[in-house]
Design brief:
The protein has 168 residues and is mainly alpha-helical. Helix content is 42%, strand content 2%. It has a two-stranded parallel ribbon with strand order 1-2. Helix 1 packs parallel to helix 2, helix 1 (3-25) packs across helix 3 and helix 2 (56-70) packs across helix 3 (95-104).
Length: 168
């Protein structure tokens, strides 16, 4: 497995957990793991960061954890943002913004990566948004586009957790 694949696998694995913890923190009433953060969603312990992260994967994990600790509110609204390295205001975002920001914490600009790939291969991306060309303001913030980018670059995780099932 390449270093990049390992980084993305770590990122995807933590994204779901971070989003679930964030939802619990903000009283969405998702259960917290017993013994880890407590069972009372009203009592919150800050998510601890990895001290002195050296590897890209550690930086990505810390980037995602920082989103939980900042108290980001869900808002998937379309906004015009700079390119490259553009972002919506740091106090808001959607699940895809957790991934974008976590990767940026390790020096990867998913906005730029997806926009460049879509510019070259627009027809290979979902055509469900009524666009005739890529839009660097929003394309990287859409789950189907992130999935397509990762799949196109060999970074898709298996659909099963059963070790004998290699289907992706």
């Amino acid at each position: 497995m390449t270093k990049t694949k390992g980084v993305v696998i770590v990122l995807i694995a933590i994204a779901a957990a971070v989003i679930a913890i964030a939802a619990a923190k903000y009283n969405q009433r998702l259960p917290l793991p017993a013994g880890v953060y407590g069972t009372d969603p009203e009592v919150w312990t800050e998510v601890r960061l990895i001290e002195n992260p050296q590897m890209a994967a550690e930086k990505i994990v810390n980037g995602a954890k920082q989103e939980v600790n900042k108290g980001v509110r869900y808002n998937a609204s379309y906004l015009q943002i700079p390119y490259p390295n553009g972002d919506v205001p740091s106090d808001r975002g959607a699940c895809t913004d957790v991934i974008v920001r976590a990767l940026r914490n390790a020096g990867y600009d998913l906005q730029k990566l997806i926009h460049k790939d879509m510019s070259r291969n627009f027809k290979l991306y979902p055509q469900t948004y009524g666009l005739s060309k890529p839009d660097s303001n929003i394309d990287h913030r859409r789950v189907p586009n992130q999935m397509t980018y990762l799949r196109r670059h060999g970074l898709e995780l298996p659909k099963s957790v059963n070790g004998s099932d290699k289907e992706t």
